[in-house]
Amino acid sequence: MRRLSAFLLVVALAVHACAQATGGQGSPVLLPVDEHSFAQIRAAAKGKVLVLNFWATWCKPCLEEFPHLVKLQKHYEAQGLDVMFISVDDDDAKTTRRVRSVLATMGVEKPSYLKKSRNDEGFINAVHPSWSGAVPTTFVYDRNGKLIAMRSEEMGFDDLEKIVVPLLR
């Protein structure tokens, strides 16, 4: 519990510092995630319906799906929905700029994540043992943290709503 509290404090401070540095505007907050911190991110969302979307800048279906996920977040955030984006792009300066650019273009206002694992297989297994690592992949968890759906395909707004809305009741 102490490690989770410390992690959340670091995330909150990072978000605050970035907002202060940009005046609340500018480049989206992009935080690192690896196989160890992934569990902490999920645990921090307990009590909310969590939609985790794994994507990449080079993935056309990912980019086509993105606006639906952003719209879903805006429509249902007040009811307890948390949509998080995790980029599986390479961890280099040029790619990180591209990831931030996509997030800004898509209107993502919340902190997002960039995979920083040196062990891709370990990261994939930490997310879910049956996940192949394909993108786009979206995981939906209920308020208790139970996995309800895993879809390794592009999803439209209506498809996402059919899964999420019953969980928000």
Secondary-structure topology with pairs:
Elements: H1 2-22, E1 30-33, H2 35-44, E2 49-55, H3 60-76, E3 81-87, H4 93-106, E4 112-115, H5 120-127, E5 137-141, E6 147-151, H6 157-168
Helix pairs in contact: 2-5, 3-6
Structure notes:
With 169 residues, the chain is an alpha/beta fold. It contains 6 helices and 6 strands; from the N terminus they run H-E-H-E-H-E-H-E-H-E-E-H. The chain has helices at 2-22, 35-44, 60-76, 93-106, 120-127, 157-168; strands spanning 30-33, 49-55, 81-87, 112-115, 137-141, 147-151. It has a 6-stranded mixed sheet with strand order 1-4-3-2-5-6. Strand 3 (81-87), helix 4 and strand 4 (112-115) form a beta-alpha-beta unit. Helix 2 (35-44) runs parallel beside helix 5 and helix 3 packs parallel to helix 6 (157-168). The longest helix has 21 residues, at 2-22. Residues 1-24 have low confidence and may be disordered.
